[in-house]
Amino acid sequence: MKPAVERMLDRRSFFTSMGKAAAGASALGLLTDADIEAAPANVQRNSIPSDLKITDLRVAVVEKAPMTCPLIRLDTNQGLAGYGEVRDGASATYALFLKSRLLGENPCNVDRLFRKIKQFGAPARQAGGVCGVEMALWDLAGKAYGVPAYQMLGGKFRDKVRLYADTTETEDPHEQGRRLKKRMESGFTWLKQDFGIDLLKDVPGGLAMPQGSSVTGGGLVMHPFTGIEITDKGIAFLSDWVAASRQEIGMDIPLASDHYGHIGVNSCIRLARAMEKHQLAWMEDMVPWQLPELLKQIKDAVDIPILTGEDIYLKEDFARLITAGAVDIIHPDLASAGGLLEMKKISDFAMEHGVPMAMHFAGTPVSFMANLHTAVAVENFLVLENHSVDVPWWQDLVSGVPKPILDHGFAAPSDRPGLGVELVEEVVKAHLKPGTTYFAPTPEWDNERSWDRLWS
Q: What are the CA-CA distances from residue 222 to residues 177, 226, 349 (Å)?
C-alpha cells in the first residue's frame, strides 16, 4: 500500500492533518473556532464501515401511537445502533425470527441483506419484519458513512413533504366537515375522511344484503362475495352526506376517502359515480388489490381517481396493477412495500408509466422518518399520511429532529446521518405495551435456522 494511502486510513494522522489544515484556514480568516470544533462531528470514529457487524436485534413495542407499533433496534460491534419499525398492528415476531439471518452481517450491505430476507415477507402486516429491518439497515449505513438516508437514495426532489391526516369520524356530516376544517386551520392542505355503509345501518332501504349478514362483517369475506349492495336510496344518502361535509370546507382543497364497506363491484361503480360531483381526490381500496381486473372495471367506469396499495409487498404486484391500467394512483405503505429502496423502485416504475404515488403511514416517528427520507427522494410523490396528529406525546418519542415534526401540514427529513432520530428512552418506556420490555436481549432467537434456499 502506498504510504499516502496508509496515512489517510490512519485515524490519528487524519485528525492531526485535519487539525493542521483547519488551523491554517483559520489563520487565513476562512474558519472560525466554532467551525474547527465542529469539523470532526460527523465522522464515525469507532472503525471503518467495512468492519461493522450486527450483534443483536431487540424490540420495544409502543402502544396507542395511536396503533400498536413494534420498534426494533439492530446493535453492532462498534456501538452504533440502527432503528426500524414493524408495521402498525403487526407482531414483533415477524422481525425477531430474522435475527439469526442477520447476526455477523455488515448492515451497510443493505440491498444484499434485503434480498436474503425478503422471502420471509408477505402482503400487509406479514411484511413488517422485513421492512422494519430494512429501515434499521439504512439507519446504520447512514450513521456509518455520516450521510442521511435520502442522500443514499439519490438525493432530494423536494425539501419538505406534504401531509394528509385521517380525520376522526362522526355520523353528523356537518360536524365531520367542521373537523376537517380544523385540519385545514392547522395547516393541512390535503384532507381525508372515511365514509361507508356503516352510515346506512339505520337508514331503512339503504342496503340490500343477505338476511343475517352484518354491515361490518368482521372483514373476513372479500368484497365481491358478501352479497351486500347499496340501493339508490343509500347512494343518495351517502352523496348528500359527503356534500354536507364538503359544504364546510369548500371545493378547493383535495379530499380523499376510504372505508366504504365490503360491497360488490356494481355498488362500487355506482357509489364512485355519485362522488364525481364532489371532486374527491381519490377513492381508496374499493375492492382488494388482489383483484386487478375488478379494480380496472371500476376505474374504467368512473371519472374519479381509483387508488390502492397499502397492503402490497414488493414492486412486482404494483407493476401488475400499473401495467393492467387498474389504478390512477398507487398508495404503498413503506412498512409493507419492502422498505426505502423498494419504495424507490416502485415509485420509479410508476413514474415511467405516468402514475403518481401517495404514501400510507401509521406509526411512530421512526417509521415516519423513513417515509420522509423516501418521499423527498422520489419524483412522482403526491402526499404522505400521518395518523398521529391527535397523539400529544407522539413527537416526544424521538430526539435529533426540529420540533414540531408536523409543521403546518408539512414535514422534513432530518439531515443527520441515517434516519436522523434517536429514541428518548423515558418517553418510549412510558408508552410500552403492558407486559413488554425496552429492548431486552433476545438470545432465544440467535440460532433459529432452516434451509432457506428457494431453488435446488
A: 30, 7, 28
CATH 3.40.50.300 fits 161-417, yes or no: no
Number of Cα atoms under 13 Å in the Cβ half of residue 133: 34
- Name every residue whose Cβ is closer than 8 Å to that of residue 24 and which is 6 or more positions away in sequence: none
Count CA atoms closer than 13 A to 432's CA, side-chain side: 18
> Could you tell me the residue ranges of all domains in the chain?
49-147+437-445, 161-417
From 3.40.50.1240, 3.30.2350.10, 3.30.390.10, 3.40.190.10, which CATH number describes the 49-147+437-445 domain?
A: 3.30.390.10
Work out the angle at residue 123's Cα, subtended by the Cα atoms of residues 120 and 129, and round it to the nearest 5 degrees.
Answer: 45
Quick one: average pLDDT of 321-325?
98
H/E stretch holding 191 reads: strand 191-194
| pLDDT (0 to 100) of residue 28 | 45
- Give the 3-state secondary structure of residue 417: coil
C-alpha distances (whole Å) from 450 to each of 56, 116, 454 are 19, 13, 11
Using pLDDT thresholds of 50, 70 and 90, give the confidence band for residue 217. Answer: low
80-136 residue pLDDT tens: 999 999 999 999 999 999 999 999 999 999 999 999 999 999 999 999 999 999 999
This prediction has a pTM of 0.88
CB 71 within 8 A of CB 85: yes
